[in-house]
Design a protein that fits this description.
heterodimer, A: mainly alpha, 12 helices, 65% helix, elongated, B: mainly alpha, two-stranded antiparallel ribbon, 15 helices, 80% helix, globular
């Protein structure tokens, strides 16, 4: 510092504040993203998930495994040239099936989670904003749905009406709005007492506008965290349905169904029918959970490192 | 506190009532009448209509619901037309086996998860903690049936110590004594629950460790062992009570799959066979029982927490 210090007036804005330089105040979102990017496990989870999205949706464009017609001359082959993960009892290519099954799992997982969050957010926001008797009736309805074992209901409906990607997404999504509804309602109950909501109300904002422009955007953090966990749960549910024999059917593929098919050959030691697909389920679900955990930490201001 | 309990019990009754309507309506829509099962697939529409009229399946659903609920309250859970037996009798043969499997797995899970979580919280970010966390993460992401398969592969096929099929005995005492056949199903359910519980326990124990009463206990020179046993354990266990109450639906679903994998003749397997048999009275009754258990479980957990935690009791 060679510069001669000049006397500073209290209003001199060029003066550095006490306690060092202060950068521009960052928005909560940017802080959350930064926090997330510093979490190694989260990045691993994100990488795994991205890998599976590419593997399942772009993989079939590059790798043309036989997943359409059975080939009885090539059944139960161990991994060989042309079939990197072997073949099934019908001569389907296991690697090709993995890609196809992954498409369904990811599609149902994300679709169900999105359906759930949309219904849940609106329902929770309305309940929280309206309050009073209607609120408690709405929340008791949530209690009722939450009390009925989810897998039972999904099974009963899937058995009766059959399972398709769209159908499963709707059924599972129709169950996954419950927890978001509770979470969003909780957020709204604290948010609606805040000044910015009162200001918007005084400015003449309608209830719809309050919910859409002020309440839901502020509850987004909670919702995003919930979506990631719901994706994981939905994928597990689809796998369980498939395993029990009520999942997606040919020409769709289902990881759970592939696993249950492989079980019949466990004593023969056909490991390629069981472990690759099992590993896929575990990896995708774990990736979603890792991302969810990290997001929760990064949105939770109390846990944020400064 | 009495007012709180009365309100809490009242809410639960309302929810059970709502649950019964929801479940009944769902199955009524999915499957309005068992006439086809009784009369066969070739029954003529007039015959079905006549059968429905005689047995009351042509009445409005609300009336049918009412007579069903009155029956349930008198212990009549309906009749399975597929196997021509009352649902109550089917349940009676099996409920003890399912209760044993779930109960002992739950006990093992809690007994393992609590010390494990506390160990992780105390030794946080050490190698031991990281290894357990990694294992818990993998197990938590694992479908029940895949875990069961790995256990079967390792402990029944590669190293044949245990059986890959659960005990088939109808005598509960024989089932309990048959560790050779029962170890793998119990281990499967236990491990799945431990994964979730231990992670939860780790975070609640970490919260508790940061509290002032732990500092005070340490400051007065209490040996670390006593700090953990006397002060940490009790406080960190409180949230577990709620968690166990909330985990009943997961237990029921886990039971369903575990019993199917190991061919264990419990309620879960009954539900599964009824699905493929299109035996809706059984599905209705079991879903209703499961939902009621869930509500009751949550209620008991809340009451237990109120009794155990003076901060809630006095609030």
């Amino acid at each position: 510092m060679t510069q001669v210090a000049r006397p500073l007036s209290p209003l001199d804005i060029t003066r550095a504040p006490e306690g060092g330089e202060v950068g521009p105040i960052q928005s909560g979102w940017r802080l959350a993203v930064r926090e997330f990017a510093q979490n190694r496990l989260a990045l691993i989870g994100l990488a795994i998930l991205l890998f599976f999205v590419i593997f399942c949706f772009l993989g079939p464009l590059v790798y043309h495994g036989n997943v359409i017609s059975s080939n009885l001359l090539a059944t139960n082959l161990p991994p060989v040239a042309g079939h990197p993960l072997g073949t099934t009892d019908l001569g389907f290519d296991e690697l090709g099936l993995l890609m196809k099954g992954g498409q369904a799992a990811l599609e149902v997982g994300f679709a169900a989670a999105v359906i759930g969050i949309v219904i849940g957010a609106i329902y929770g926001a309305v309940a929280g904003l309206v309050g009073g008797f209607i609120d408690s009736v709405m929340m008791r309805i949530v209690d009722v749905f939450l009390s009925v074992p989810f897998l039972f209901v999904v099974l009963i409906i899937a058995v009766r009406y059959g399972a398709s990607v769209l159908g499963l997404s709707v059924i599972i999504g129709a169950y996954f709005w419950l927890v978001p509804a509770r979470l969003v309602r909780g957020e709204v109950l604290t948010l609606r007492e805040r000044d910015f909501v009162s200001a918007a109300r005084i400015a003449g904002a309608s209830r719809v506008r309050l919910i859409a422009r002020h309440l839901i955007p502020n509850a987004l953090g909670v919702m995003i965290v919930n979506v990631t966990f719901n994706v994981a749960d939905a994928i597990l549910t689809v796998a369980a349905l498939g395993y029990l024999g009520y999942g997606l059917h040919y020409p769709n593929q289902d990881w759970g169904d592939m696993l249950s098919n492989g079980i019949g050959y466990m004593q023969d030691g056909y490991w390629w029918l069981v472990y690759p697909v099992g590993a896929c389920i575990v990896l995708v679900v774990m990736a979603c959970n890792l991302i969810g955990d990290a997001l929760r930490d990064s949105f939770d201001v109390r846990l944020r490192r400064r | 506190m009495t007012a709180y309990l009365v309100r809490r019990v009242g809410t639960s009754i309302v929810v059970v009532f709502g649950v019964s309507i929801f479940v009944f309506l769902l199955l009524h829509i999915v499957y309005p009448s068992p006439a086809i099962d009784v009369l066969g697939v070739r029954a003529t529409p007039p015959a079905i209509k006549a059968w429905n009229r005689v047995h009351g399946f042509d009445r409005p659903w609300l009336v049918q619901y009412w007579s069903y609920i009155v029956g349930v309250l008198h212990g009549n859970l309906g009749k399975s037309y597929k196997v021509n037996q009352s649902v109550a009798a089917l349940f009676e043969e099996r409920w003890a086996r399912s209760l044993y499997l779930s109960g002992i797995s739950l006990v093992f899970a809690v007994v393992i998860a609590i010390p494990l979580g506390i160990y992780q919280a105390v030794r946080r970010n050490t190698v031991g903690d990281n290894v357990v966390t990694a294992l818990a993460f993998v197990t938590y992401a694992m479908p029940v049936f895949f875990l069961a398969l790995i256990l079967i592969q390792v402990f029944a096929l590669s190293i044949p110590i245990f059986s890959f099929e659960a005990s088939q005995s109808t005598n509960l005492l024989v089932v309990i004594g048959d560790w050779h056949a029962m170890t793998l199903p119990i281990a499967t359910l236990t491990l799945i629950s431990v994964a979730g519980y231990s992670r939860y326990m780790r975070s609640t124990a970490m919260d508790a460790l940061a509290q002032d009463y732990i500092k005070a206990a340490r400051a007065k020179g209490l040996p670390e062992r006593l700090v953990l046993w006397r002060h940490l354990l009790r406080n960190a266990c409180l949230p577990m009570v709620t968690l166990i109450g909330l985990s009943i639906p997961i237990l029921l679903a886990g039971n369903l799959i575990t019993e199917q994998v190991f061919n264990y003749q419990g309620l879960g397997l009954l539900f599964f066979t009824s699905l493929s048999n299109v035996d809706y009275p059984v599905l209705l009754a079991y879903t209703l029982v499961g939902a009621t258990l869930t509500v009751v479980g949550n209620l008991i957990a809340d009451i237990a927490l109120t009794v155990a935690d003076p901060r809630i009791r006095l609030a």
